[in-house]
Amino acid sequence: MRTRVPSRRYDSVRQDWRAILPYAKGSLFFDHTDKLENAYVMLSVSLNEAISLRQNGDGEKANQEIVVVGELCSRLALRINAVLHAMGQHARHFGIVPNLSLLDATIFRASSASALPATAISCVNSCCRALAIP
């Protein structure tokens, strides 16, 4: 027996993140999340391999690996673009404005995360603003 979760409109990003998705939406979310995570992991592993090869003095193999990294980066970018486009279409179709919370550089505490360039945060924030257009 499947229970139906009532549709709700939340006032904050935190409430949206903690809400239980209906089965169909949850399946769609996890399917896309898996695809995005797989694409990211493949890119990350290949990039780490290219960097390691370069640091170990094997520039020729590193250059070959970078060709693969470029293709994997393009694939990830296409997947992200498709998700953002679908979200924008959904918002326009239903006339809703999604709850968004812009990134704040002060919340990144890890040493590697604190080096996150301001331009990257600005880029993500711009995407969030673009999605807020109904």
Molecular structure report:
With 134 residues, the chain is mainly alpha-helical. It folds into two domains: 22-96; 98-134, no CATH class. Helix content is 69%, strand content 0%. The longest helix has 36 residues, at 59-94. It is elongated and about 55 Å long.
- Please give the radius of gyration in angstroms: 19 Å
Q: What fraction, in percent, of the residue positions are helical?
A: 55-70%
Unreliable segments of 5+ consecutive residues: 1-6
Ends: how far apart? 36 Å
Specify the overall morphology: elongated
Order of helices and strands: HHHHH
Task: Tell me the major beta sheet.
Answer: none
Percent in strands: under 5%
Strand-pairing-aware structural class = mainly alpha
Number of spatially distinct domains: 2
- The total beta strand count reads 0
What is the residue-mean pLDDT, rounded to a whole number? 75
| Helix run count | 5
